[in-house]
Amino acid sequence: MLKFLKSILLAYLLLLGGLYLVQDWVIFRASPLPNNYEFSFDQPFQEEFKKTPDGTQINTLFFPAQGVSKGLVFNNHGNRRNLSRWGRTAKEFTKHGYDVFFYDYRGFGKTEGKPSEENIHKDAAFLYEHMKNQYSEDSIIIYGRSLGTGVASKLASENDPKMLILETPYFNMADVGYMHLPVFPYNWLIKHSFRTDEWIGQVNAPIYIFHGTEDQLVPYESSEKLVKLLKSSNSELITLEGGGHRGLNRFEEYQQKMKELLGD
Predict the structure, then answer these.
(1) Low-confidence ranges of the chain (pLDDT < 50)
(2) Measured distance CA(169)–CA(178) in Å, rounded
(3) Does the predicted model carry a pTM greater than 0.90?
(4) Domains in the chain and their CATH numbers?
């Protein structure tokens, strides 16, 4: 029996070590692109590189609004692929009269470097300051999708945007782990904690959360817990019955709410 228990403990420790080593790959599913890659979208756009204070080149895309611009959507995308995928979602905002600014995290697409929570937050803050030179903050909407919801929440807590829109947000990274496999000490295992739960209560702007009830990656319960922390009385959780982690924009309720929020 003692030998058996030792074997179980050893296996558990090996799993812990394995989880620690692979977490960067799990959290950041980056797909690099060569610098000569040519983006192609069904609407006009501009591509630029922005150099951060530490000299890293960040790849960015800008999509102008259809018609007269009402302001800017500062977009923080999910954890997979790169701007060749995420740029296709710009029309969800440009059709309502908003310009959209995208950037790739370090190691994603054409952006240099290696992703980490620390440098993603630093880059987001740097780029947001750059865009504030072009737009008044009361016309800037901060948007986050999946991984980007934590980035967007921290950014909004440190600034004063018009509103914060979160799609499929998590409470924090450790909490996601506990929801899926509650047998590991994620609180000390996770290197990139992304504490949305700590930042969202510091946001003064209205917050609108979209989440599907059948999300198998970031469970709907994450948003139920987050909505209890919201400061602004104008904030709201928009529940999409039967919605998963992707494709929420196909729901009529999603489109109607976006139309309402973006001022059509």
Answers:
(1) none
(2) 15
(3) yes
(4) 2-261 (3.40.50.1820)
